[in-house]
Every structure is written in C-alpha cells, then in structure tokens.
C-alpha cells in the first residue's frame, strides 16, 4: 500500500520540491494551506504538480485546526515546513514568529501524540540556530546554539521540543538542521533570489540599482531540490535522529553578487549595487558553514548541484521570467 505524507508549508520553496519527490515515490501527498481567499500556487505550478496534491486548511497558530488536520489525515509522515521563515522580519514580527515557528510546532506534536502516534515527524530546523555558537570554523550536530534573531530563538524551541517528544513519549520525531538552500522558486526577499531577480531587471532595463545590506556575510548555500531528499531519507531510518545538512563550503554575499552579474552578462556589478542600511540586521550571523559528515555517512547523502551551478540556474530562470514579462508588456 502506498504511504501518505502531510506537508505543512506546501506553497513555499521546499514544499513543492518535497511534494514532487514524494509523488515520484507514489506517496499520497496532502498539503496544508492557510485559509486564504486566494492562495498562491505559483511554486507548485512551476514544478507542474498543483493538481496532484490534496489540500487541507490549517494554520500553525491555531491548535484546533492542527488537531483537525491530523485527525482527518492521520498520515504516515508529517513534514513540518511551515514557518515565518524570513529572519529579517522576525524582529519586526517577533510574537507572530514565535507563535508560528515555536508554539505551532508544540501544537502539531501534541496533535500527533494524541491522535496519530505512529506518524513519523520531520521538523525543519535551521543553521540560524547556531548564530554565533562555538565552532571551529564550521557547525555540526555538536555545536552550541547561540541564535541571533527571534526567528533563530523560536526555531531552537521547536528543535528542542521535537527532541523532547522523542525522549518523553517515544514518538518518531527528527530534525534536519538545514543550511541555506535556494532555487528559482526561492522567496523574493531572500538575498540570493533578490540578487538574481535584480540582475534580470537591470539587464532588461526595468531597474537601474540593486539595494542590499551586509555584503560580507557568508553562507553555506545549496540547492533546495537536493535538500528535500535528505528530509525523506531521515524518516525512512530505523531510528529517529537529527542531522546537519549543508555543502561544507561557504561564500560571501559579495561573491554571489559578482557571479550572478557575470552570468547575467554584466561585468561592472559595483556600478549597480548600493549599500542600504534598511537591509542590515540588528544582530547579524556573520558566517555559517556546515560539517555534514553524519548525513553523508548514515544517510549516504551528498548534494549534486554546486555553488556555481546554483547561481547560474537562478540567474537563467530569472532572466527568462523577466524577459517573458517585459515581452508581454511590450506587446501590450
Ligand atoms: P518558505 O518559502 O518561507 O515557506 C514557508 C511556508 O510556510 C509558506 O508556504 C507559508 O505559507 C507557510 N506558513 C507561514 N506561516 C504559516 C502559518 N501560520 N500556518 C501555516 N503555514 C504557514 O520557506 P522554505 O524556504 O520553503 O523553508 C521551509 C522550512 O525550512 C521553513 O520552516 C524554514 O524556516 C526552514 N528552513 C529553510 C531554510 C532555507 O534555506 N530555505 C534553511 C533552514 C530551514 P504561505 O504561502 O501561505 O505564506
Ligand atoms: O537570504 P537571507 O535573508 O537568509 P538567512 O537570513 O541566512 O536565512 C535563511 O536561511 C536560514 C538557514 O540558515 C533559514 F533558516 C531561514 O529561514 C532563511 O531561509 O540572508 C542571508 C545573508 C544575511 O547575512 C543577510 O544579512 O544575506 C545578508 N544580506 C545582505 N543584504 C541580505 C541582504 N539579506 C536579505 N534578505 N536582503 C538583503 O538585501
């Protein structure tokens, strides 16, 4: 019999890539969406799977809705990807970020414990939990957490609660501590997509500047399509466990900018990029770099797309998208 999976955050970046993977493995996929008058299926459309998913309404900040979702679906696996995931907004919306990213996870775990205790649970933890935690130039499963944002703090709560439900009630609950992962359907606020979209707009004359914050921050950037594979693998293991997932190399925002402009056929990026204090954070995470040895060894996982291939893929997708839009505008 085919397995069933519930994905929260189905309309975001990772949800569609994970859904596509699970559909290819013959899962019945349920996608939890918030109540909306007009939900945005653009990312699922991009991967051509909008009609292959069963949708159910639920909100991470509403416990009764989550109880209903779990009671109705009783899935074999839950992948909790829903979050207020933009770090920058988490200072401006600290309460909402805490309700959705921290308390919402407690509500979901409780619903599973009470109404579907055999369900396996994946929590989308993050390298942002490390913040400026101790490291020897990298972060692995042993590195201390010292989050620097309300987002990172809420994610530490959810991460520890996920471990606590495993230890207290014997539930199959896992966390993937994923480092930054990107794609052509990455949200437009995140720096990589903001850059590749900016390059395309500049190229086609729709913008003349790109306003960015801290160009010196370094991130370990991989491709989202590679990372959803590890979420799936974690829930197929004999025992629940937590894993760090990243490429093991990092690059500065400036390096990303330079390469993206090069792929866009623009050599003098300095002419277009403007430093703007609005995009700097009250407390920055200066540098993140994964040591994903455990995932490589136990899950036999390795990323396929390199940093350069990722930047190229994103620039090409945005050039195509912006060109189509400007062609349509020209033709009236
Ligand atoms: P994303 O594109 O921002 O998607 C998040 C999804 O969560 C959106 O579809 C959003 O729904 C949904 N959501 C927000 N608030 C909700 C609520 N109250 N109730 C129900 N759904 C809600 O994020 P992503 O990049 O796919 O990341 C997936 C998960 O991995 C997130 O938990 C993120 O924190 C975590 N993570 C991401 C990265 C990364 O680099 N991408 C790295 C580590 C961890 P709407 O579409 O309705 O807004
Ligand atoms: O792209 P970002 O907004 O991603 P950030 O803050 O690393 O968070 C992402 O990755 C986390 C995993 O580590 C996830 F948990 C989280 O949900 C999200 O997906 O910013 C990356 C870096 C930061 O240092 C930021 O200060 O880029 C710097 N940056 C410089 N200028 C900018 C900008 N970031 C944004 N968003 N916009 C700018 O103009």
From TrEMBL:
Signal peptide: none annotated. Residues 6-314 form the NAD(P)-binding domain. Catalyzes the conversion of GDP-D-mannose to GDP-4-dehydro-6-deoxy-D-mannose. Pfam families: GDP_Man_Dehyd. It catalyses: GDP-alpha-D-mannose = GDP-4-dehydro-alpha-D-rhamnose + H2O. The gene is gmd. Keywords: Lyase, NADP. Its cofactor is NADP(+). GO terms for biological process: 'de novo' GDP-L-fucose biosynthetic process. Belongs to the NAD(P)-dependent epimerase/dehydratase family. GDP-mannose 4,6-dehydratase subfamily. SUPFAM superfamilies: NAD(P)-binding Rossmann-fold domains. Its EC number is 4.2.1.47. It comes from the Bacteria. GO terms for molecular function: GDP-mannose 4,6-dehydratase activity; NADP+ binding. This is GDP-mannose 4,6-dehydratase. The keyword NADP applies. InterPro entries: GDP_Man_deHydtase (IPR006368), NAD(P)-bd_dom (IPR016040), NAD(P)-bd_dom_sf (IPR036291).
């Amino acid at each position: 019999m085919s397995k069933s999976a519930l994905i929260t955050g189905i309309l975001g970046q990772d949800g569609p890539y994970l859904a596509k993977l699970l559909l290819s493995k013959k899962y019945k996929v349920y996608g939890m969406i918030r109540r909306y008058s007009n939900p945005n299926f653009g990312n699922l459309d991009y991967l051509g799977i909008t009609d292959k998913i069963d949708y159910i309404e639920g909100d991470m900040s509403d416990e009764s809705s989550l109880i209903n979702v779990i009671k109705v679906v009783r899935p074999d696996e839950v992948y909790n990807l829903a979050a207020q995931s933009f770090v920058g907004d988490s200072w401006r919306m600290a309460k909402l970020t805490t309700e959705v990213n921290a308390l919402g996870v407690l509500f979901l775990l409780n619903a599973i414990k009470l109404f579907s205790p055999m369900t396996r649970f994946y929590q989308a933890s993050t390298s942002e939990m490390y913040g400026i935690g101790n490291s020897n130039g990298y972060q692995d499963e042993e590195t201390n957490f010292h989050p620097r944002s309300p987002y990172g703090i809420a994610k530490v709560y959810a991460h520890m609660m996920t471990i606590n439900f495993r230890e207290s009630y014997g539930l199959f609950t896992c966390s993937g501590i994923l480092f930054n992962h990107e794609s052509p359907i990455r949200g437009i606020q995140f720096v990589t997509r903001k850059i590749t979209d900016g390059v395309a707009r500049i190229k086609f004359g729709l913008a003349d500047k790109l306003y960015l914050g801290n160009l010196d921050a370094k991130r370990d950037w991989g491709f989202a399509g590679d990372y959803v594979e590890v979420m799936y693998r974690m829930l197929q293991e004999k025992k629940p466990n937590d894993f760090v997932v990243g490429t093991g190399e990092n690059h500065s925002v400036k390096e990303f900018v330079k390469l993206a402009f090069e792929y866009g056929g623009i050599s003098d990026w300095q002419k277009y990029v403007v430093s703007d204090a609005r995009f700097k954070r009250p407390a920055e995470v200066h540098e993140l770099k994964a040591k994903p040895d455990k995932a490589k060894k136990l899950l036999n996982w390795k990323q396929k797309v390199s940093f350069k291939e990722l930047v190229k893929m994103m620039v090409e997708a945005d050039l195509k998208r912006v060109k189509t839009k400007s062609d349509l505008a020209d033709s009236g």
